[in-house]
Amino acid sequence: GAVVSQHPSRVICKSGTSVKIECRSLDFQATTMFWYRQFPKQSLMLMATSNEGSKATYEQGVEKDKFLINHASLTLSTLTVTSAHPEDSSFYICSAMDPPEQFFGPGTRLTVL
Amino acid sequence: GDSVTQMEGPVTLSEEAFLTINCTYTATGYPSLFWYVQYPGEGLQLLLKATKADDKGSNKGFEATYRKETTSFHLEKGSVQVSDSAVYFCALRGVQGAQKLVFGQGTRLTINP
């Protein structure tokens, strides 16, 4: 199947700083990518849908000014957590559409101190 | 809105035991149903899927049948192996909302030799 990578796999940052997470589709082009958040022992919650060349569509309750998404090319989407706080600590997972399938990255664990 | 409910884990079985992980859903119309598996340190992988009522998805010895009358998509395997230890997610893709997936909370499965 298609491969999706995420970088970094793990990041620790201080409260108030910003962190960028990259999601890449390695062997296919994806006009649509998704960003999920997974809390311990809980399900994946969709944060936003990232569309190449246009603004992301955010789910209800997700702050678009805090979680900046950029999908500048057909193989790369980035999620920037701005002014991160400890409550933003979580596991962030991206996926990319290669219709009809959705392929997932390995996730990024963010810890905000 | 659409939702998925899975049996709570963790589930611990001995090798060669029979496995059932229950999944029920709430959705409008006829959603597509999926089981994903997440091995330690890896991203989610599609295990099997069914797109219409009475369809049976199968892969690697796992099976699940789309039951419209009971709104269920239970995952089964006749004889589990240690290598099946992972977290299993049931998910649906609704008729509306295009490609978005709605996940259950995940069930952690541990198989002991």
Write a structural description.
The complex is a heterodimer of chains A (about 110) and B (about 110). In chain A, strands 2, 4, 5, 6, 9, 10 and 11 form a seven-stranded mixed β-sheet that branches. A four-stranded antiparallel β-sheet of chain A has the order 1-3-8-7, with no helix packed on it. In chain A, β9 and β10 form a beta hairpin. Helices cover about 0% and strands about 55% of the residues of chain A. The termini of chain A are far apart. Chain A is built from no helices and eleven strands. Chain B is an all-beta fold and about 110 residues long. Chain B has strands spanning about 5, 10-15, 20, 25, 30-40, 45-50, 55-60, 60-65, 75, 85-95, 100-105, 105-110. In chain B, the strands form three sheets. In chain B, strands 2, 5, 6, 10, 11 and 12 form a six-stranded mixed β-sheet that branches. Chain B has a four-stranded antiparallel β-sheet with strand order 3-9-8-7, with no helix packed on it. Chain B starts with a strand and ends with a strand.
Produce the secondary structure layout:
The complex is a heterodimer of chains A (113) and B (113).
Chain A: E1 4-7, E2 10-13, E3 19-25, E4 32-38, E5 44-51, E6 57-58, E7 67-73, E8 76-81, E9 90-98, E10 101-104, E11 108-112
Parallel strand pairs in A: 2-11
Antiparallel strand pairs in A: 1-3, 3-8, 4-5, 4-9, 5-6, 7-8, 9-10, 9-11
Chain B: E1 3-6, E2 11-14, E3 19-21, E4 23-26, E5 32-38, E6 44-50, E7 56-59, E8 62-65, E9 75-77, E10 86-93, E11 101-103, E12 107-112
Parallel strand pairs in B: 2-12
Antiparallel strand pairs in B: 1-4, 3-9, 5-6, 5-10, 7-8, 8-9, 10-11, 10-12
